[in-house]
Amino acid sequence: MVVIGNKEYFKGIGEIKFEGRESDNPLAYKFYDPEQLVAGKTMRDHFRFSMAYWHTLCGTGGDPFGPSTKEFPWATSNDPMVAAREKADAAFEFITKMGLDYYCFHDYDLVDEAGSLAESEKRVFKTVDYLKEKMKVSGVKLLWGTANLFSNPRYMNGAASNPNFDVVAHAGAQLKIALDATMELNGENYVFWGGREGYMSLLNTNMKLEQDNIGRFMRMARDYARGQGFKGTFFIEPKPMEPSKHQYDFDAATSIKFIREQELAGDFKLNIEVNHATLAQHTFQHELQVAANSGMLGSIDANRGDYQNGWDTDQFPNNVMETAEAMLVFLKSDGLQGGGINFDAKTRRNSTDLEDIFIAHIGGADTFARGLMVADSVINNSNYEKLLGKRYASFTSGKGLDFVRGKLSLTDLYDVAKLGGEPKQISGKQELFENIINQYV
Q1: Is 139 left (phi over 0), alpha (psi -120 to 50) or beta?
Q2: Cβ atoms of residues 256 and 291 within 8 Å
Q3: pLDDT for 105-132, tens place per residue?
Q4: Are 16 and 99 in contact (CB under 8 A)?
Q5: Where are the alpha helices (DSSP H) in 294-353?
Q6: H/E run at residue 142
Q7: Contact criterion met (CB below 8 Å) for 382 and 376
Q8: Are 47 and 326 in contact (CB under 8 A)?
Q9: Alpha helices, DSSP H, located in 139-232
Q10: Residues 429, 434, 439, 440: is their CA dihedral positive or negative?
Q11: What is the C-alpha to C-alpha distance for residues 144 and 137, in angstroms, rounded to an integer?
């Protein structure tokens, strides 16, 4: 059901439909068919696609070298509450025309921060009341909420990791408001992204105290939310750097270690972003696999970086090969635990037509749909699984199986090696595996 507010912002654009790969219509899905079954679930249920409030509605194209290039028709009022309602109208018009089921936000994406915490809280909850009406009419749900604890100058030295307790306390108050807003909107999850939770120089940093303070902060959030009846999952979103020189949630492995050390396991999982993975010198599929191996693959931010740039460009995904390899991990790990796929991506600075926002999201959804179908075909129609099993066959019987089951000692390995002689060289067949993926793309 398409929901239009007091005015229609995306005029001339109707509901985006699946028309198949032969369609020349730029405002139609070519591969993403929400009701198509893949591996026993619909694409809609696999992905749980979500619109990002910040990029889609707030990203006006400004960068460090120039001002905004985009004038959004929902961002013209000087009254913050009028602007918040108009932004919400535009959000739900876009979400419902796209046929998405979810959205997500930072607190001050919804409405501009005020001059005091008390006034900011009033603004947030007036906007929440308006969003509740939109959600009731449309059936759209909140995938997750979060607090922007990085943009305001008060957080220049971090939020939970700040060396000034007064800043930590303010961050805690803002976190409580964001949690309350998320719960009021029946949000299914809550995300922590530590944009300033890191250091610029170790010379003036007590790393252990800062990391322990973040842990205390997150445990407080968990305990408060659970006490209010929140059943959702908390996510940590890893990123290695930018804006900090070194962020404490550097990558999936670092974040998992932090979760375990800080006694957060059971409540916290990971929200993996493609561009953050590549900034950490990993692949997207690597980060997904690390999270899945620990039972912490919770949610995904879908985007990509520019391979020639060393920063977080947040472009819409279009690399089918990369996505297909990631979807192999996705399917073999039984999908996501609690989360969905959020388009944390923005149109380019020089893509200034409103329809470009639709075209970009359509391309992102189609890329993930193609990747999912390729991965499913590889698993079910090729000899990929057989080849992978063959490569590790020596651990499925005999002494190899004994080793896996913990039945051998180091002396036993010595005896096996002494009797067996020089091991046979066995090819890894990497090019064959790559060609199988390419065949099904």
Answers
A1: left
A2: yes
A3: 999 999 999 999 999 999 999 999 999 9
A4: yes
A5: 320-332
A6: strand 141-146
A7: no
A8: no
A9: 165-184, 207-227
A10: positive
A11: 19
Across the chain, mean pLDDT equals: 97
> Residues 46, 55, 106, 282: which is the catalytic one?
106
Confidence of residue 140 (pLDDT cuts 50, 70, 90): very high
Which pLDDT band holds residue 64 (cuts at 50, 70, 90)?
confident
Residue among 253, 222, 224, 244 at smallest CA distance from 235: 222
Q: Measure the CA–CA gap between 97 and 28, rounded to whole angstroms.
A: 11
Sort 227 into a burial class: Cβ within 10 Å, 0-12 / 13-18 / 19+: exposed
Instruction: Verify whether residue 109 is a known catalytic residue.
Output: yes
User: What's the pLDDT tens digit per position in 45-59?
Assistant: 999 999 999 999 999
Residue with tokens 């930072």: 106
- 69, two tokens: 């290039």
The catalytically annotated residue of 33, 101, 109, 366 is: 109
Amino acid (one-letter) located at 136: K
**Whole-angstrom distance, CA of residue 88 vs CA of residue 103:** 11
Whether residue 408 has pLDDT greater than 90? yes
Give the DSSP letter of residue 315: B
Distances (CA, A) of 304 to 57, 251, 346, 348: 19, 16, 10, 12
Asked if 255 and 238 count as a contact pair (C-beta separation under 8 A), the reply is yes
Angle at 305 between CA 301 and CA 309, to 5 degrees: 150
SS3 157: coil
Tokens of 201: 């120089």
Cα–Cα dist 354/361, whole Å: 12
Tokens 């499925």: give the residue: 396
The token duo for 52 is: 């990002």
Distance of alpha carbon 313 from alpha carbon 106, whole angstroms: 19
Q: Is 115 exposed, middle or buried (0-12, 13-18, 19+ CB in 10 A)?
A: exposed
- Contact (CB, 8 A) for 139 and 3: no
Mean pLDDT to the nearest integer, 298-304: 97
Report how far apart, in Å, the C-alpha atoms of 359 and of each of 26, 33, 57, 115, 349 are.
6, 16, 15, 37, 15
Answer whether residue 95 shows pLDDT above 90.
yes
Tell me the mean pLDDT in the region 160-177. Answer: 98
| pTM of the full structure | 0.96
Close Cβ partners of 132 (under 8 Å, ≥ 6 residues apart): 184, 185
Query: Residue 34: which H helix or E strand, with range?
Result: none
